[in-house]
Write a structure and sequence with these properties.
Blueprint: E1 14-15, E2 22-26, H1 29-39, H2 47-52, E3 55-61, E4 67-76, E5 79-86, E6 95-103, E7 106-111, H3 115-122, E8 129-136, H4 138-166
Length: about 170
Amino acid sequence: MKRQLVWKSLVDAYTSEIGHYKVIPLTSSAALIEEGEEMLHCVGKYDRVCHQGSTRVFSIRDRHDERAATLALVFLDDNWQIEQIKGNANWEVSLTERSYIADSCGVYEFDCTDMDSCRHNYSDMTEGREVYETDYSDLYCLAHEVLDKYRMAWAESARSIIMNAAR
């Protein structure tokens, strides 16, 4: 029998200015299972920790409502933190890496999703100098935006509880 747990998110669905991604809180066992099946990863098993309140999961969708990534926040050491942000089949989405070959004639850019292959292919260039550049992706920045929003909502919720208890 499948679990049918439900919980609340302190952050509602919204569209970010960063890449115009949609951020959708996943607040049920069914939503997590669907996300895991569509994204080919194990987030469907997170329902217990979400129901207990120690984890929150968000589906990140592009302008066309296609799933781009899944973000998990975890409450650890008295604060919310990013546990992970993963693309389809647990693909790493946090960083963008590019490789350049520099020589006396100029700089040539190579897009490298497989950095080992890229290094191997150009390692025999004795005159060239290989340069690697790592940038944070829009999805990495978006994960931090969601984290900040959730932390602010959490703090406001805690203040409200304290104020109500003092009355």
